[in-house]
Design brief:
93 residues; mainly alpha; 48% helix; 4% strand
Length: 93
């Protein structure tokens, strides 16, 4: 390998090392929190945010908060969904 090729190879290695160094600096400056703080935030979110998919915990969704329940012009809900009686269960068409 001649000197020009060796210089080119060394320049490429230096460029890669400098790029890696910049990425590591960015990673070092990223804001971090302790895992206990993250776990506490997750627990608080799960306890305070209603998830109606877990009805045994939060109870059934009240009709005024149900965006999928058809509403008439007066704001009252229709008695039928997709032509079926509203029994409180899902109807898949």
């Amino acid at each position: 390998m001649n000197a020009a090729q060796q210089d080119s190879l060394n320049d490429l290695r230096l460029k890669r090392i400098l790029q890696l160094n910049e990425r590591l600096k960015e990673e070092l400056n990223r804001e971090r929190i302790h895992s206990s703080e993250a776990a506490e935030a997750l627990i608080n979110y799960a306890q305070e945010t209603r998830d109606y998919a877990v009805s045994c915990v939060w109870g059934p969704l009240q009709s005024e908060y149900d965006p999928f329940l058809k509403q008439g012009t007066s704001g009252k809900t229709h008695g039928k969904l997709h032509g079926a009686e509203n029994t409180g269960c899902c109807v898949i068409c």
